[in-house]
Specification:
The complex is a heterodimer of chains A (about 425) and B (about 400).
Chain A (H helix, E strand, L loop, with lengths): L6 E5 L4 H12 L3 E6 L2 H15 L8 E5 H8 L5 E4 L5 H11 L8 E4 L6 H4 L5 H5 L1 E6 L8 E6 L5 H14 L3 E4 L8 H19 L1 H7 L10 H8 L1 H14 L12 H8 L12 E3 L5 E5 L4 E4 L6 H11 L3 H10 L3 H19 L12 H11 L4 H7 L2 H11 L14 H7 L8
Parallel strand pairs in A: 1-2, 1-4, 2-3, 4-5, 5-6, 7-8
Antiparallel strand pairs in A: 6-7, 9-10, 10-11
Chain B lengths: L5 E8 L13 H16 L8 E5 L3 H5 L8 H4 L8 E4 L5 H14 L5 E8 L6 H8 L5 H5 L5 H17 L3 H15 L14 H5 L7 E3 L2 E2 L9 E9 H10 L9 E9 L4 H7 L8 H13 L10 E3 L5 H10 L8 H6 L16 H4 L7 H13 L13 E8 L4 E8 L3
Parallel strand pairs in B: 2-3, 2-4, 9-10
Antiparallel strand pairs in B: 1-7, 4-7, 5-6, 8-11, 10-11
Classes of the chains: A alpha/beta (about 425), B alpha/beta (about 400).
Chain lengths: ~425, ~400
C-alpha cells in the first residue's frame, strides 16, 4: 500500500495525552499539527510537549491552531490523525463528522480511547473512514510509560493495522501490545479490576491501611489509591462503570463501584487535580486520608505490621524472592488481604489470555502492558515470586479464585527478576 | 599462546536508567543484582570464585558506606571467607580494579576473580554530588567554592584545543548526538529514551543551559546509579570453562594489552607540561600506545571499536586524536567523515558511552570492558558493530590524571 507517515494531526492537542503523544511524534522529526478548541489551548499543549522533551527545538516541528481556522488547512496534509478529545462518544463522533470531509483517502485515523466501544464511534462514517480507523491507546505520560495498545475493528484494513504496529514500535519507540477490541483492552481491564477491588476493601480497612498493605513493595511504583488520585476519581468511575457494563467475567462483582466514590465525586474530591481525593495534602506537607466509612479526612496512623516491614527490608536489599516468602507465609490477618490482591492479579491476568490478547501471545502482551503501562511487576513475574504455577494454582483454589487454564511458568526467570527489580520499591 | 593470558568470561550490567534511591534500595542491592546477573550470564557458581575486587569512587560520601568488599559475604553463603578489596582512582576506579585483577591472575595467585564496578550517586542533590566529584581533582586548588568543578575543568580542555588547534563547538554537539543515538539501541543505557538532536545539542536554551564555559548540559554525562560485574580468569580456569561450556578457548576474549599511567592531579599542571607536546594530554596518549604495544597492534585501525571515557564531549574529542584516528588537533575530521559512527571505519562508544549509557563513576571502567566483551563475542544486540574482533577501552580518572587503556580480543 506504500504507507508512510511524515505529518500528524492531533485533535485535542490541548489535553495531556494528545499533547504528549504529539510531542513524541515531534521528537522523532515528524511535522505535527496541534489542533484544539482554541489556539491558546493548543499552545498549552505545545508547552507540555516541550517540557516532556526537555527541549525547545521540538517546537520547530509543531504547528498550533484552533479547529475553526485550521482543520481545513491541516487535515488534508496529515498522514495520520490522532483523535484525543474528551472520553465521550458523542464528542468523538461529532469530531469525526467534522474532519471527514478533509481527509485524504489513505489517511490513518486513530483514537486514544480504550474504554469506549470502537464500532459505535464510527457510526455514520464512510466505509473508507472505517477502513482507516483503529485505536492506539497510549499510556500517560508517554515520555515515561512506553506501552501502546493497538486494537482494530472488523472494518480496519489489515495493512494499516500492521503498518501502525511497526510504526509505533520502530519509529515512536512504543512497547506495542496488540489487543482485542474489548472495553479496557488489556491494561485497564486488569488494573481497574484491582483498583476497584481495593476501593471496596478501603471501606473496611481505610485508605492509609490499603495503600500500606498494597504498597510499592508489592511490585508497583505507586500505591493503588494514590494512583486513583492521580488518574482522577471521575475517570476511575467512568472506566470501572464501562467495564462493569461491557464485560462479563468471573470477577464481575468487583467492577461494582462503591457508593462512597460517588459521594467523593459529588463533593468534588476528584483526586490530585482537585487538591483532595483519597489523600489530602495540607500546608507544610502533612497528609490526611479519606475515610470511606465516615466520609471524613483523618490523620495518619502510620500502620506497622511485622510482615510488611520485613518484606520491605528484604526488598531494600534486593532480596525479592525472600521478601515474597515472608508475604506468602505471614500469619497476620492483614497478610490475607495482600495475598488476596496478589493472587487475584495473577489469576485475573492469566484468565484474560485469549480474551483480551491473542492466545498465541500467551501472557507476554499482558506482561508488557502491566509493566510498560503501569510500572507494575508483571503477572508472570508475580507468579514466579509466589512460587510458580503449581503452587500458585493450589493457593488460588483455596482462595476461591478461578484457576486459569493456561497458568504457566516463563523460562529465564532469574533475568526477569533482575530486570524487574525496579518495580519493587522498599516503601 | 600466552600462558599467562587473562580471559574475560562475561558479566552483567544493571539498568543505568534506574534511580536506586527512589526505589529506597541499599547499595548492597545493586551489588547483589550485578553479582547474581553476572553469575547467571557467565554460568559461574559462587563457589568457583577465588577473590572479588570492587571498583568504587566515593560510596562513603554518596551512601555513608565504605568497606564494600565485605558485602560479598551477604550475597551468597559460598562467598563468606572470600578475599575481597576495593580500588579507587576516581572515574578510573573500575579500570584499576580490572588491572589489579589481571595482575593477581598473571602472578598466579588467583584463577577466577569477580570484579564489580559500582556507584550509587542519586542519593544527593546534583549540587552536593558535584562537590563530591571535586574530590577527583585537587579539591583545595581547583574545586573549593565552585558548584560544578568538573564541567569547568573539561571546558578548559576544550579551550586548550581551541587555543592550540581551533575548536568549533558544533563538533562537540555532534559527539553528544552520536552518543545519544547509539544509546537508543542499548537497553541498559541511561539516556535510551531521552530526546536528542543535533539542533538541541548545539542550541543554548532553558533545557540546555551553559553549565560552565563552553560546556552545556548536553556536553555532560549525567548523574547515574549503576553496577557492572565481570569475571576475569586465568588460562587454567578458562580452559576448563571452555570445555564445560563447549566453546573454543581460542575464541574466548582476553586482555591483549593494557596501558596505565598517572600524572599530575591538577589540570593546569598537565596542560603546562604538554605545552610543547603535539598531544594535549600526552600521558593519556602514552597509556594508549603502551596498550597497543603490549597487544602487538600497530595503531588504532587494528581495533574494530573503542569504548572511551566521554565524561564530557571534550574528553571524547580528545580521545579521537589521542587514539590516533586523526593527527593531533584534527579530531573534527573523524567526526565530519562519520568514522566514529556505527557503521563507520572505527565506531566510538557504540554503547552510548558515558554521555548516553551513563557514568556511575566507579562502574564505568568495568562497563566499558563488558561492552567490548559483548562486541567481540557478537552479543551486543542492536548496538553490535558487525564483525568486531578487537576493541579498546579508555577509562580516565579526574582530569585524565589516571589513564587506563585495555585492548580485548580473541586469538583469531
Amino acid at each position: 500500500m506504500g504507507l508512510d507517515i511524515k505529518s500528524v494531526a492531533v485533535i485535542g492537542a490541548g489535553g495531556k495525552i494528545g499533547s504528549l503523544t504529539g510531542g513524541i511524534c515531534a521528537q522523532e522529526g515528524l511535522r505535527v499539527y496541534y489542533l484544539s478548541r482554541s489556539l491558546e489551548h493548543a499552545k498549552k499543549g505545545l508547552n507540555r510537549a516541550i517540557e516532556q522533551a526537555r527541549s525547545e527545538v521540538i517546537a520547530d516541528n509543531i504547528i498550533c491552531g484552533d479547529y475553526d481556522s485550521m482543520l481545513a488547512k491541516t487535515i488534508p496534509y496529515a498522514d495520520w490523525v490522532i483523535e484525543a478529545v474528551a472520553e465521550d462518544g458523542n464528542i468523538k463522533r461529532q469530531m469525526y463528522a467534522k474532519i471527514e470531509p478533509y481527509l485524504q483517502p489513505n489517511v490513518i485515523i486513530s483514537t486514544t480511547t480504550s474504554s469506549l466501544p470502537l464500532d459505535s464511534l464510527t457510526e455514520g462514517r464512510s466505509k473508507i473512514f472505517r477502513k482507516n480507523f483503529l485505536s492506539t491507546h497510549f499510556y500517560n505520560p508517554p515520555g515515561k510509560m512506553f506501552a501502546c495498545e493497538i486494537a482494530a475493528t472488523d472494518s480496519t484494513d489489515k495493512g494499516i493495522y500492521n503498518f501502525m504496529k511497526d510504526f509505533l514500535h520502530q519509529r515512536l519507540g512504543r512497547v506495542v501490545v496488540p489487543t482485542k477490541n474489548l472495553e479496557g483492552f488489556a491494561g485497564n481491564r486488569i488494573a481497574f479490576l484491582l483498583f476497584n477491588k481495593i476501593t471496596q476493601l478501603a471501606l473496611e480497612y481505610g485508605t492509609e491501611m490499603m495503600d500500606y498493605l498494597i504498597g510499592p513493595y508489592t511490585g508497583r511504583l505507586m500505591p493503588p489509591l494514590a494512583t486513583i488520585d492521580l488518574v482522577g476519581l471521575d475517570i476511575h468511575k467512568a472506566i470501572v462503570n464501562s467495564l462493569h457494563i461491557n464485560t462479563n467475567d468471573e470477577m464481575h462483582d468487583f467492577f461494582v463501584l462503591p457508593a462512597f466514590i460517588d459521594m467523593m465525586i459529588k463533593n468534588g474530591l476528584l483526586g490530585n487535580k482537585a487538591g483532595s481525593g483519597f489523600y489530602k495534602k495540607l500546608e507544610g506537607g502533612r497528609i490526611l486520608y479519606y475515610d470511606p466509612a465516615s466520609g471524613d479526612y483523618i490523620p495518619a496512623v502510620q500502620p506497622h505490621l511485622v510482615f510488611v516491614e520485613q518484606a520491605k527490608h528484604l526488598i531494600r536489599l534486593g532480596m525479592y524472592r525472600e521478601a515474597f516468602e515472608i508475604v506468602k507465609n505471614a500469619h497476620e490477618k492483614e497478610a490475607d488481604i495482600v495475598r488476596d490482591i496478589l493472587y487475584t492479579y495473577v489469576a485475573y491476568s492469566y484468565n484474560r489470555i485469549g480474551e483480551v490478547t491473542d492466545e498465541q501471545f500467551g501472557i507476554d502482551g499482558i506482561d508488557s502492558v502491566m509493566s510498560s503501562g503501569f510500572h507494575w511487576a508483571c503477572p508472570s513475574l508475580m507468579l514466579n515470586l509466589l512460587g510458580g504455577a503449581e503452587e500458585t494454582a493450589e493457593k488460588m483454589l483455596e482462595l476461591g479464585l478461578k484457576v486459569p487454564d493456561r497458568l504457566y511458568n516463563k523460562t529465564d526467570t532469574m533475568l526477569q527478576i533482575l530486570d524487574s527489580g525496579k518495580y519493587f520499591v522498599a516503601l | 599462546m600466552d600462558k599467562k593470558a587473562v580471559y574475560i568470561l562475561g558479566g552483567y550490567q544493571t539498568d543505568f536508567a534506574r534511580n536506586w534511591s527512589r526505589e529506597n534500595k541499599h547499595i548492597s542491592a545493586m551489588m547483589r543484582e550485578a553479582f547474581q546477573g553476572a553469575s547467571y550470564q557467565a554460568k559461574i557458581a559462587p563457589a568457583e570464585i577465588d577473590a572479588a575486587f570492587v571498583g568504587n569512587f566515593a560510596s562513603e560520601l554518596y551512601c555513608n558506606q565504605g568497606h564494600l568488599g565485605a558485602f560479598f559475604a551477604d550475597l551468597d553463603s559460598a562467598l563468606v571467607g572470600l578475599p575481597t578489596c576495593r580500588f579507587e582512582a576516581a572515574c578510573a576506579s573500575g579500570g584499576v580494579a580490572i588491572l589489579s585483577a589481571m595482575a593477581y591472575i598473571k602472578a598466579g595467585i588467583y584463577d577466577l576473580i569477580f570484579v564489580i564496578g559500582i556507584e550509587q550517586m542519586k542519593t544527593v542533590t546534583p549540587l552536593e554530588g558535584g562537590r563530591f566529584l571535586g574530590a577527583a581533582a585537587w579539591y583545595e586548588k581547583e574545586c573549593q567554592g565552585i558548584d560544578f568543578p568538573f564541567p569547568k575543568l573539561f571546558g578548559k580542555l576544550g579551550d586548550e584545543y581551541d587555543k592550540r588547534y581551533g575548536l568549533d563547538d558544533k563538533y562537540l554537539a555532534r559527539i553528544a548526538q552520536i552518543n545519544y543515538s547509539n544509546a537508543k539501541k542499548n537497553p541498559k543505557a541511561q539516556a535510551r529514551d531521552w530526546f536528542m538532536s543535533f539542533e538541541h545539542a548545539k542550541t543554548i536554551g532553558k533545557y540546555n543551559c551553559t553549565v560552565s564555559g563552553r560546556i552545556k548540559v548536553t556536553d555532560c554525562s549525567q548523574v547515574t546509579d549503576g553496577a557492572v560485574g565481570l569475571f576475569i580468569a586465568s588460562e587454567k580456569f578458562a580452559s576448563e570453562y571452555a570445555r564445560k561450556t563447549n566453546t573454543l578457548l581460542e575464541k574466548m576474549p582476553r586482555i591483549l594489552g593494557w596501558g596505565h599511567t598517572t600524572t599530575h592531579i591538577e589540570f593546569e599542571e598537565k596542560i603546562a607540561d604538554s605545552a610543547s607536546d603535539e598531544f594535549v594530554l600526552p600521558w593519556t596518549r602514552r597509556a594508549i600506545t603502551d596498550a597497543f604495544k603490549r597487544a602487538s597492534i600497530k595503531d588504532c585501525w587494528d581495533v574494530d571499536l573503542i569504548e572511551t571515557h566521554d565524561c564530557f564531549t571534550t574528553s571524547e574529542y580528545m580521545a579521537i586524536d589521542h587514539f590516533g584516528l586523526t593527527k593531533p588537533g584534527e579530531s573534527w575530521k573523524a567526526i565530519e567523515e562519520g568514522i566514529i559512527e556505527i557503521p563507520g571505519k572505527l565506531p566510538i562508544n557504540p554503547s552510548g558511552g558515558l554521555i548516553g549509557c551513563g557514568h556511575p563513576v566507579g562502574a564505568t571502567g568495568v562497563r566499558q570492558l563488558l561492552d567490548v566483551y559483548k562486541q567481540v563475542t557478537g552479543s551486543a544486540g542492536e548496538y553490535q558493530v558487525d564483525g568486531a574482533k578487537k576493541g579498546a577501552t579508555l577509562n580516565i580518572g579526574g582530569t585524565a590524571a589516571t589513564n587506563v587503556c585495555i585492548i580485548i580480543g580473541s586469538y583469531d
